[in-house]
Amino acid sequence: MTDTPDISPIRTAVSKNLGSRYRAESRFRAAGLAAVAAAVGILILLLSSIVSGGLPAFSANQLHLTVDLDEELVDPSGERSEDSLRRGSYSRILQNAVRTEFPEVTGRRDLRNLFSLYTALNATRLMDEVLEDPTLIGTQYRFTMPLADDLDLYLKGMLVDERSFEPQGTLSLDVSDDGVIVRSSATDFRDLASEVARTLRARATLLEVDADMLAERAEGLSGTEAEDMLYDAELNRRQAAEIRARLETEAGPIALDGSLPSILVESDGRTVLLTDLARNGAGGTGRFLLGSEAVDGESNWSLQVIDTPAERRRVSDQLIVWTRALEARGAISAAFNTYLFANADSREPELAGVKGALYGSILTMIITIIISVPIGVFTALYLEEYAPKNRFTALIEVNINNLAAVPSIVFGLLGLAVFINAFGLPRSAPLVGGLVLSLMTLPTVIIATRAALKAVPQSIREAALAVGASRTQTVFHHVLPLAAPGILTGAIIGLAQAMGETAPLLMIGMVAFIADAPTLGLEGFTEPATVMPVQIFLWSDGAERAFQARTAAAILVLLALMIGFNALAIYLRRRFERRW
């Protein structure tokens, strides 16, 4: 008779550890979910930051002007020839059109300020439209051009902080030799006068604190350095004392300067910039920025306060007033920013576009595809299906794997030394860029292709050989079609990675400023060009604030191209995938 073993101790031990095992599994699953959630959260944060920063660049405020294409200005020779039309005074035509909107502007400095509503490069755009349609000569033509970049940002609410107030009293504007006297029947300016007073007191306090710090630091120094600090401290104390003396004086208005918020009084096509405020809040004095007529008992008026001081912004109060007036007249409208896709790069943000970089990327990727994909696939086929397994092929495989880990800038140095210096190929051309990116992409294509070939079962090869197929027929009729999804996926992912590279292209000169898009043809492969990642790099370093939005918009365009490449890889994989 066989004795039955007693398994109760085993069951007891298992039951004792079962709860801790379940808890450990739950902790592991929770950690995995937390990691996925963190990754998704970071991705959403990154994308939302890029989208919010780039969306303003996809819209543009455009200025519509009726220009008089006078024949004497457009065609100075009267020949209607291209050479004569190119010598036309198109800048003067635009200046005349904007002066028509504001005939009261006559001073040289004011006119220069008025003409900064748009960039002078728009004269070339007007010339191109006349060259395209010479029948416009001698007519009144409605010309549309982008508003200056800073004013475009102002209308989008991204340049200054401002507020509007609806006053209670009626407005009177009296013109005198000292300017415009502004009065309200109610104390509509009292709160603004109190705000300005508080701001000045805070400024005086900061000056006094800064003076004390400078004096304290000067005690530990000697010579001219200590004297300079003591001089600066005394200067700060003097300025603070002047501010406090001005505020403590009961009589007299509070003077407004460029370091304080700008207060604008708007009434029926007139705008007055206040230069001082009465302490009782009944009004002040100022000067006309728009219009010049007196007003008595006007009830339909408003107060506009620009909290960002004039000395801390790039646009003056006058430009802001002109822009608001043009918008009220319907001469400024917001529309989709076609310039972003129709123009190449420009020094002026409002005219800068991605067309040149997009064309350069297309031409560069064509060269990369033509070279890296066939060479990479056939190299992998030879190494996997035909090459004998010896030390020489093992050395080649090791070097291919090592090349895949080489920093991309090394390939840029190689391209600079070989393709440009040794072979004399044109600098900053898509041909050279494609060759450099091909060298960088080849290891990725070879490794991905070999992995796809290894995934094909050996039984497929044996079955083909058993029915009489040759080695080449077996590879190209059976193995390669089955490995095609993996090969295409690896190749497209490698090309997408190459499209996002910047460092190797910087080394071969594709960082140059390119104002014209290359030709989408054979000649375009040797023309100067840049690519999307380099364009993003250039714009991110731009001094103009509007380039920040252009940078984010270009990133979105590049991301769209990358997503398209990966979507194509997924589609091709599912389209050609076979199951066995």
Secondary-structure blueprint:
Blueprint (H helix, E strand, L loop, with lengths): L7 H47 L4 E10 L2 H4 L7 H5 L3 H12 L6 H7 L7 H11 L7 E7 L2 H7 L6 E4 L5 E6 L2 E6 L5 H29 L5 H25 L5 E2 L6 E6 L2 E8 L5 E8 L4 E4 L3 E5 L10 H12 L3 E5 L2 H4 L12 H32 L4 H13 L4 H15 L7 H25 L3 H9 L4 H29 L3 H5 L24 H9 L5 H31 L4
Antiparallel strand pairs: 1-2, 1-12, 3-11, 4-5, 4-10, 5-9, 6-8, 7-8, 7-11, 8-9
Overview of the structural elements:
The structure is a single chain. It contains 20 helices and twelve strands. It folds into four domains: 9-52; 57-155, no CATH class; 162-313, no CATH class; 349-576, Orthogonal Bundle (MetI-like fold). Helix 12 crosses helix 19 (532-540) and helix 15 crosses helix 17 (471-499). The mean pLDDT is 88. By secondary structure, it is α+β, with helices and mostly antiparallel strands. The chain has helices spanning 8-54, 71-74, 82-86, 90-101, 108-114, 122-132, 149-155, 190-218, 224-248, 317-328, 339-342, 355-386, 391-403, 408-422, 430-454, 458-466, 471-499, 503-507, 532-540, 546-576; strands at 59-68, 140-146, 162-165, 171-176, 179-184, 254-255, 262-267, 270-277, 283-290, 295-298, 302-306, 332-336. The strands form two sheets. Strands 3, 4, 5, 6, 7, 8, 9, 10 and 11 form a nine-stranded antiparallel sheet that branches.
Instruction: Give the domain tally.
Output: 4
- Summarize the biggest pleated sheet: 9 strands, antiparallel
Number of helices in the DSSP assignment: 20
CATH A-level architecture of the largest domain: Orthogonal Bundle
Strand content: 5-15%
Low-confidence stretches: none
CATH topology of the largest domain, what is it called? Answer: MetI-like fold
Look at the structure and give the mean pLDDT: 88
Helix content: 55-70%
Summing up helix and strand content along with how strands pair, one would put the structural category as alpha+beta
CATH superfamily of the largest domain: MetI-like
Per DSSP E runs of 2 or more residues, the count of β-strands stands at 12
Q: Could you tell me how far the N terminus lies from the C terminus, measured between alpha carbons in angstroms?
A: 53 Å
The level-1 CATH class of the largest domain: Mainly Alpha
Shape: extended
Any idea what the radius of gyration is? 36 Å
